[in-house]
Write a structure and sequence with these properties.
It is a single chain. With 216 residues, this protein is of the alpha+beta class. The protein has a four-stranded antiparallel beta sheet. A hairpin with a 2-residue loop joins strand 1 and strand 2. 11% of the residues are buried. Helix 4 crosses helix 6 and helix 6 runs antiparallel to helix 7. The mean pLDDT is 84.
Length: 216
């Protein structure tokens, strides 16, 4: 809906919302588009944006907001992305950049749940609940930093493609690749520090089992 119109001075309850504006597609046809330069996904890119002051009355009531529509230059679609925000101070460019940053957040959450096991802890006390998830994300960050500083090798992605041939276009290591390599390094360091020279058959077997498990 359009923002609420000014008060008329007449008796009775004033209007809390304006006329219905229609769908984002309707706004894309009637709105004013302009070219904007946004920083997203590590690059500076030109895109088309259109912003319209609106009320999303069903969810936010009379709180004023904006619809920010995004369309890539040369595309035939009326719009490709519709964003709603109650932030009236930030520019449309800033809103688009904020949305783009969500991509790094979503894979981090997925990795934390699927690989790090965040959310599986059976904590009962308030302090334990508040500590577990931040600590797990801290470990996730440390693994990434370790791999970037000490563990990365150009052959890692090629080796993963060999072991997992369905990754035909894989070029960059995933977090699973990073933590797999860290596990191997830790196991090797533990074996080397306990036994000088040749590792015992038990230690060698343990290492091979861990390597096979982390390679799957």
């Amino acid at each position: 809906y359009a923002p609420a119109p000014p008060r008329t001075g007449r008796r009775g309850r004033p209007r809390v919302k304006g006329e219905r504006l229609g769908t984002p597609g309707d706004l894309a046809v009637s709105g004013a588009w302009r070219t904007a330069v946004v920083h997203r996904y590590g690059r500076q890119e030109k895109t088309l944006v259109c912003e319209v002051p609106v009320l999303w009355y069903g969810c936010f009531g009379p709180v004023p907001g904006r619809i920010v529509l995004v369309r890539e230059p040369g595309r035939a679609a009326p719009y490709e992305l519709a964003l709603f925000t109650t932030d009236l101070a930030a520019s449309a460019t800033r809103i688009v950049e904020r949305y783009a940053r969500r991509w790094s957040i979503e894979p981090a959450n997925a990795t934390g749940k699927q690989i790090m096991g965040i959310g599986q802890a059976r904590n009962r006390t308030p302090r334990a609940v508040r500590r577990t998830v931040p600590f797990a994300f801290l470990i996730q960050s440390l693994v990434t930093v370790w791999y970037a500083e000490h563990g990365h090798h150009p052959d890692d992605a090629r080796e993963r493609r060999r072991l997992s041939p369905w990754y035909t276009t894989k070029q960059d290591p995933s977090f699973e690749d990073m933590i797999t390599k860290l596990r191997r390094v830790l196991i090797y360091a533990r074996i080397s520090s306990v036994t000088t020279g040749q590792a015992s058959p038990t230690e060698t077997h343990t290492y091979h089992l861990a390597s096979e498990l982390t390679a799957v």
